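Archive maintenance. Older records in this collection stored only the sequence; we are now back-filling the structure field for every entry so that each record is complete. The fields below show one back-filled record exactly as it appears after the update. Entries are processed alphabetically, and 2-amino-4-hydroxy-6-hydroxymethyldihydropteridine diphosphokinase is next in the queue.

ARCHIVE ENTRY
Title: 2-amino-4-hydroxy-6-hydroxymethyldihydropteridine diphosphokinase
Organism field: Psychrobacter nivimaris
Length field: 177
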Amino acid sequence: MMHKTSVDLNLATLTQCEPETVQAQPVVEVVLALGSNYQADKYLPLARQRLAALGEVRLSTDFQNPDFTATTQLPKPDYTNQCVHLTLITPISLQQLQQTFKTLEGDCHRCRQTKPNQVRRVTMDIDILMIKLANIENSLSKDSIFKSMSDWIVMADRYPFKAHEEAGVRELILTKL
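Back-filled structure field:
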């Protein structure tokens, strides 16, 4: 008899926080959204490699998505997106984590300045979707990564998730990371 496990995936019921309210809190796990619309085949592997240096990385399928800001007058290249679950080797504050990801984007030659009507080439964009704080972690439950979804905090500035982000998060949860 097949036993099918069901995961409560109503993300709207999870705790949501503005990132500012948990800036100084030590984070032990994070779910990220990676995106690139320029040389993704070069920059996504580089970002994954750098993230792996911070801890254990599990990946969703990568998705090809049109840029939702593109118009017929201003066509834009498609994005390649992927969600990443990262269990950090050492807990660090959300603020330090954000700075680490900005540095990683810079290492991927991310350029934030664009001229008006210039197509933005985004080599790497890293967004924090969800975090798990150190004070919630139970060291005995290493194998129960997503056992209790209530331990996760959704970044309010990223919710509701875009379709590809929700698909990536669902895939990571359903494959138990």
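Update note: Strands lie at 15-17, 26-36, 55-59, 63-65, 79-93, 125-133, 153-155. The chain has one domain: 11-174.
Entry marked complete.
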